[in-house]
Amino acid sequence: MYTLENKRILVTGGTGSLGKVLIRRLLSGELGMPQKIIVFSRDEAKQHAMRVDYLKKARQDGAEAHRKYADLLDYRIGDVRDFHSLASALKDVDVVFNAAALKQVPACEYFPHQAVLTNIIGPENIVRAIQEHDLPVEIVVGISTDKACKPVNVMGMTKALQERVFIQANMRCPNTRFACVRYGNVLASRGSVIPLFHEQIKHGGPVTITTTDMTRFLLSLDQAVDTVLAAVCEARRGETYIPRVPSARVTDIAALLIGERPIETVVMGIRPGEKIHEILVSEEERYRTIERGRYFVILPNLPEISVGEGVQPALTDEYSSANYVMPAPELKELLLSHRLMIDDSRKFYEDEFLR
What we know:
It is a single chain. With 355 residues, the protein is an alpha/beta fold. The chain has a domain at 8-183 and 219-244 and 280-318: Rossmann fold, CATH 3.40.50.720. It is built from eleven helices and 16 strands. It has helices at residues 17-28, 44-61, 63-72, 83-90, 105-110, 112-132, 154-172, 193-202, 221-234, 250-258, 328-337, and strands at 8-12, 36-41, 73-77, 95-98, 139-145, 177-183, 185-186, 207-209, 215-219, 240-243, 247-249, 265-267, 279-281, 289-292, 295-298, 319-320. The strands form four sheets. A nine-stranded mixed beta sheet has the order 3-2-1-4-5-6-10-15-14, with helices on both faces. Helix 1 packs across helix 9 (221-234) and helix 2 packs antiparallel against helix 3. The protein is globular and about 60 Å long. The two termini are 35 Å apart. Mean pLDDT is 91; it is low at 344-355.
């Protein structure tokens, strides 16, 4: 099995919600202790906050931890849109996790060209740098979203093209393995619905719901990272890893977070670019989707890199959030297990990665 022992790793978007948890997991050495982790992002304030946070951890854990964090973590200010800064960061790197993205659906609708620059040109710059500079990168994992499946919004369209850029890159860069992961809503990540509901409840409401029919896949940040690490270890060229996770009605999430509090809910209507239900595997993709351990794996659509002949499909229909809805008691247990419920003292959840 592929390990990260002594590897040099680049995490684009390393100061984001997923990036921070991914880096924490990489530092744990669960897949082998890397030689270097490069945190690449354009936000100097977030990089400074991360550096200070790890210095605090080092003081708490002792001198050995301080040396580990100081030696392993390398912070680089840059943007995936900028080919030259990205190419410089990729020098001597073995593994790339591309977590840089514009991911807010309404923002991408109003600024589609900005979404194109980050979500499509950024990945293309990674591939181009590896190809033109003949870089010895072993694997690139692109982080995608359920919105890339049968996309109806700019964010999903650009992420769908990111997937295709990375899948086709296996032909352009035959010495590098490119794979993707695609997953749904991450519980409590920045900009997601649960922090929004908490903030609205904190201020006495109302809690705003776009439509009463809406469902979403739900998984924790650690489950998202599990999927990313499974892909880096197991994915073959051009494959897309999909976690098998439950979904929930957004109205059920709101009701459980509100509890017995006298807080009104208001239906606002669907925002620009929103879907009622999300899909992780489409009807067309199911014919080349297999099971591998805890994951569905979509095989590449390009015949030059496909090994999908004679594959027995793992699904009989598309993998939609409408078909895997948790009952309210099960959803409550999920929220409680991740400390996302508000207790009777009105103390709000805290997450060290989201403060």
